[in-house]
Amino acid sequence: MSDCFETRETLLEVGDMLAHIKAAAPAPVGVERVPLMQAVDRILAEPLVATLDLPRYTASAMDGIAFAHEGHHCFRLAGEALAGHPFKAVVASGEAVAITTGAPLPAGCDTVVMIEEIVVSGERVELLKPDSVRRGQNVRHAGEEITIGDRVFEAGTLLGPAQLGMAASLGLAYIDVHRRPRVAIFSSGDELRRAGDDTTSSLFDANTFSLAACLKRWGAEVVMTDILPDRLDETMAHLSSASRQADLIITSGGVSAGQADLVRDAIQQLGQVTSWRVAMRPGKPMAFGHIQQVPFFGLPGNPVAALVTLMQFVQPLFRQLSGWRHWMPVKWHALCKQPLKGRHGRLDLLRGRYHVDSRGVISVSVLQEQGSHRLSSLYDANCLIELPAELAACDAGTPVTIQPLGELI
Mind listing the pLDDT tens digit for each residue in 227-286? Predict the structure, then answer.
């Protein structure tokens, strides 16, 4: 059992928190075989090794005529080769066949001239620019892109449109991917109600919905969502049940120093908290640990802080659980358009809006409203501006690092 809740004044550096999370993250979740049509945005579980050549045969890259390059200017048209109906005879010297893009190159041919550069008169074909013709032009050779035995994709590859198209080209109907991590998400507090409940004295729970929406975009299967009451026995029962159903448990609220913040007490009895309170704003009251070997994050209750800590700390572990190898967050450099102020010794993540001008220069402005309870400030923003712990302020025109919000807005 961890005693880290007792050292409440100690703030963990952001880099140290990330290192703890990376070291403690379990292996990717299990593997399943899915139809190729259902594999978009899934993570490849095994290397994909080619069992076919691509192209599968030597073919024409153009509509035109195919022939043997022997210096002839005129040819007798011997037939045609279509993509689905190849020309099966051998093309003799001085002969040519009409050919379409993708059609197998007939035996006896090594060159293709596009249709715009020939003149056809009956069975006679003449080249318009014979001196410009090169042997082998406009020909796609078998195996020039992929050969049998090539490792086309490594395990951990995100399967997007191009990757799925390649897999289909290699004849795959099914593909092995990592299972979607199962996630349980809880908000905490008797003051919360679900949207739709008839209430005038309580608050509607927003965090469960926003956190779940973001995790689903990342590929999660959300298996449990609920509100944890301000009763220790019921909170423990919910979290214990989640540890038997989920690969990752997330709570928001309940891990600060308030009298009714029972999540931390429940975790102390059910598992272990290894990291607590991070030197970052928003997001200081955050915990990381395990419940029955299942990773646990206790996020702040303020809605902006909950989403920002999800992006900064939960996302790296979730990507690792998903099997995504070598994932890195997207960060850009921008010129700040106004002075920035933070607090020395803490990473400030300021909500801002970036703009890319006609020269490709990125500039960024900070939003006036920065309260972590103002969810509107997050969708009014399109990035987070990093003000490092060692820098309490910076002048207008200073280069800064920004994190595009992308999947959060």
Answer: 898 899 999 999 999 999 999 999 998 776 655 568 888 888 999 988 889 999 999 989
Q: For 247, left (φ over 0), alpha (ψ -120 to 50), or beta?
A: alpha
Q: In sequence order, what DSSP letters do the residues of 127-194 get, joined into one string?
A: ES-GGG--TTTTEEPTTSSB-TT-EEE-TT-B--HHHHHHHHHTT-SEEEEEPPPEEEEEEE-TTEE-
Residues 278, 11 contacting (CB under 8 angstroms): yes
Could you tell me where in the chain the CATH 3.40.980.10 domains are found? 4-30+179-322
Q: Write out the DSSP string of 65-88.
A: EEE--SS-SEEEEEEEE-SSS---
CATH fold of the domain at 332-408:
Beta-clip (2.40.340)
Q: Is 397 left (phi over 0), alpha (psi -120 to 50) or beta?
A: left
> 299: closest CA among 175, 367, 212?
212
Question: Using one digit for the tens of pLDDT, what is the confidence trace for 74-92?
Answer: 999 999 999 999 999 999 9
Residue range 32-47+154-178 in CATH 3.90.105.10: yes
Residue 189's pLDDT is 83
CATH architecture of structural domain 4-30+179-322:
3-Layer(aba) Sandwich (3.40)
Q: Nearest 5 degrees, angle CA 93-CA 96-CA 97?
A: 140
DSSP assignment letter at 12: B
What does the pLDDT read at residue 343? 86
Give residue-wise pLDDT tens across range 351-391: 999 999 999 999 999 998 777 777 778 788 999 999 999 98
Neighbours of 318 (CB within 10 A): 25
Q: How confident is the model at residue 397 (pLDDT cuts 50, 70, 90)?
A: very high
Which secondary-structure segment (H or E) carries 350? strand 347-356
- Beta bridge partner(s), residue 276: 287
Measured in residues, the chain has a length of: 409
Q: Kindly report the pTM of this predicted structure.
A: 0.86
